[in-house]
Design a protein that fits this description.
Helix Hairpins, about 375 residues, 10 helices, alpha/beta, 3 domains, five-stranded mixed sheet
Length: about 375
Amino acid sequence: MKKNLTILIVDDNPENLGVLGSIIDESGYTPCFSTNGVEALRYVKEKHPSLILLDIMMPDMNGFEVCRLIKQDPTLADIPIIFLTAKTEKDDVIAGLELGAVDYVTKPFSQKELLTRINTHLELQATKEKLRESLATKDKLFSIIGHDLSNIFFGLQGYAELLKTDEEMQSDIETKKRDIQKLIQVANEGYDLLMNLLNWSKSQTGKLRANPTTLVLKDAVYRNIELQHDQANSKNITISGVIDNNILIFVDANMFDTILRNLISNALKFTQEYGKIQITAEQVEDNLIEIVVSDTGIGIKDIDKLFRIDIKARTHGTAGEKGNGLGLVLCKELIEKCDGTIEVNSEVGKGSKFFVRLPAKDKLNGT
């Protein structure tokens, strides 16, 4: 929506601010104002506007200097800057573009021309952002295929060799059971990773569509807890569900299983031995159910990076488990496809809580 896009207008003339602010507001964007360069720089660093309309001739710090300082900051450099100037000299236009501005508009300006240039550069910025996300997605996919899947196969081969050795050395039954259990665990991890990859790929290409149906939440939660039983037992972690029998949700059944599986698996990975995981739910609004997956684990340090596909940092679990971050990224995408939301509350060393809100009933039929 346009109202989510903010345009900072920097001009020392109150009359210009008023005129430009009205044009921006009437066009559907959200206008913001600064009357000098220092104030503008402070605002840009704090709020990161979508685009900047920047006057050149201002006291103390002119528009060229403001532009130069913005473009020097890697966190701000991508913000499009359009110069507003009464000057029409070629040298001034060239100087502004060389500093990194994307365009200029001369005063007195045409409202239609101004809006056309604003729309054009915001669309270009959105396209650049989509391209960056696409490249990050490609890099992530190749990383997972090249690293995580190969590790799965190495694990399968390794434990298969151990079983062969156990047989040749006539190892005791407990040793064989242990190695078989590890082989099964690696195979399950590989299957989960493959399913996540397939679903994520479908999501990226628009082929993954939600087919919602009414589910008994307690049944779905308990079924997914049981599927994680062996993994929980390997770390002596207790998983419990406190769900009322009457709570119904309206979601895609397969997507919801994937969401729960990944949230529980993530909690298991980052919870220490003998820890606890609990899943609760309640109706928070007439048409929303809030599901909370909480754990007593190590907590999350950088929550703002949790659902970003372009973050390549890998955090090992409390038992050395390896992760690629794809599970939580997929969770967020599937939850949004089910018309839901996800939030996280965590403190390092004190565990985490994932709050998932999903539809409680069929919104189309009102049941």
